[in-house]
Specification:
The protein folds into two domains: 44 residues; 123 residues, no CATH class. It is 52% helix and 5% strand. The protein has eight helices and two strands. Strand 1 and strand 2 form a beta hairpin. The longest helix is centred in the N-terminal third of the chain and has 26 residues. This is Cytochrome p450. InterPro entries: Cyt_P450_sf (IPR036396), Cytochrome_P450_monoxygenase (IPR050121). It comes from Ophiostoma piceae (strain UAMH 11346) (Sap stain fungus).
């Protein structure tokens, strides 16, 4: 018999692979996975440097519960007073309560990653699906330029105005 044959391996391991052992191994492996995933989310995730409540670093269930109990807006306002304008509300989600911080997060000049592309019809990308900022900007100016989105249509030009608008809306919820 060869030293590494399948039959020899089963003869050695087979008696130990019982339904009881498998029934115990599955929950242990599941717990180990969840524990290691929580360690990653708390300490090594790209959003780990942002402050926030501890449950927010591990799970989304706490904010789901607050939403279910209709306490989410009030809780977010309290947390923004405690942690500042940008804080973590789930392992993969930030809450931004100050509109002046949005340009730092959503940079207009950033190149979009591959997962940004959802679908594109035809051989060329549409304006919404262009990844390179320079190409997107060129086509956007050709479309938006004649329309003049700004003063004539009464759109908000400054982030301070947006912040006042959001604050007024948020105050109306209370």
């Amino acid at each position: 018999m060869a030293p590494y044959s399948r039959d020899g391996l089963f003869e050695k391991v087979g008696p130990y692979v019982t339904p009881l052992h498998m029934g115990l191994a599955i929950p242990v492996l599941l717990f180990a996975y969840l524990f290691l995933h929580a360690i990653y989310d708390v300490f090594f995730h790209p959003l780990a440097k942002f402050p926030g409540p501890f449950p927010a670093k591990i799970t989304r269930l706490w904010i789901t519960w607050k939403c279910y109990k209709e306490r989410e807006p009030y809780m977010l306002q309290e947390l923004s007073k405690k942690y500042g304008p940008v804080f973590r509300i789930s392992p993969t989600l930030l809450h931004v309560s100050d509109a002046t911080k949005l340009p730092a997060i959503y940079s207009r000049h950033a190149h979009k990653p591959k997962h940004y592309i959802t679908s594109s019809f035809g051989a060329t990308d549409s304006l919404l699906h262009m990844q390179m900022h320079a190409e997107h900007s060129k086509y956007r100016k050709a479309i938006v330029g004649p329309l003049g989105f700004g003063g004539p249509f009464g759109f908000i030009d400054r982030s301070e105005d947006i912040n006042d608008l959001i604050s007024g809306y948020h105050a109306g919820l209370l």
